[in-house]
Amino acid sequence: MRAVVQRIKSGCVSVDDKVVGAISHGLLVYLGVGKEDSDKDIDYMAEKIINLRIFEDEEGKMNQSLIDIQGEMLCISQFTLWGDCRKGRRPSFTDAQEPKEADRSYKKFVETCREKGVKVETGVFQAHMEVSSVNDGPVTMLIDSAKKF
């Protein structure tokens, strides 16, 4: 499972010109599910992301997590994180999970974060979405449950 995690001041996602999810201060998470991902990967990613200390404390150090600041999460499904651009000019997505299982994993990730007390807004799985955000920092992290980067 892979994620691009951005610290944001605000964010929203629209489908067909209708806002379907919006948050204030927190994290924008683009989440991609790979073929080999399991529930263990979901649990790892949820714990890692909501406890990642990338928010500043009173001394200006990145020392607080999403949980600590009682922030929100905007989570967007993003199979293109599994795009392999090493050969040719067109990305290959053969390492991405099949849509039905990816949808289940995505929803389970969201539910796991909610169970841990995080307010999570989402986009619509497999929809064409417009995502807007105001980056804070900017602070952007890449996380992979297989720890490849």
UniProtKB/TrEMBL annotation:
GO MF terms, alphabetically ordered: D-tyrosyl-tRNA(Tyr) deacylase activity; Gly-tRNA(Ala) deacylase activity; Ser(Gly)-tRNA(Ala) hydrolase activity; tRNA binding
Keywords: Cytoplasm, Hydrolase, RNA-binding, tRNA-binding
Tree of life domain: Bacteria
Enzyme class label: hydrolase
Pfam families: Tyr_Deacylase
InterPro entries with a match to the protein in the record: Daa-tRNA_deacyls_DTD (IPR003732), DTD-like_sf (IPR023509)
UniProt subcellular location: Cytoplasm
GO terms under biological process: D-amino acid catabolic process
Catalysed reaction, written as an equation: glycyl-tRNA(Ala) + H2O = tRNA(Ala) + glycine + H(+); a D-aminoacyl-tRNA + H2O = a tRNA + a D-alpha-amino acid + H(+)
Keyword tRNA-binding set for record: yes
Any one cellular-component term (Gene Ontology): cytoplasm
Annotated EC: 3.1.1.96, 3.1.1.-
Span(s) of short sequence motif Gly-cisPro motif, important for rejection of L-amino acids: 137-138
Keyword Transcription regulation: no
Subunit structure: Homodimer.
Family: Belongs to the DTD family.
Physiological role: An aminoacyl-tRNA editing enzyme that deacylates mischarged D-aminoacyl-tRNAs. Also deacylates mischarged glycyl-tRNA(Ala), protecting cells against glycine mischarging by AlaRS. Acts via tRNA-based rather than protein-based catalysis; rejects L-amino acids rather than detecting D-amino acids in the active site. By recycling D-aminoacyl-tRNA to D-amino acids and free tRNA molecules, this enzyme counteracts the toxicity associated with the formation of D-aminoacyl-tRNA entities in vivo and helps enforce protein L-homochirality.
Recorded domain comment: A Gly-cisPro motif from one monomer fits into the active site of the other monomer to allow specific chiral rejection of L-amino acids.
Name of this chain's protein: D-aminoacyl-tRNA deacylase
Record organism: Tindallia magadiensis
Gene behind this protein: dtd
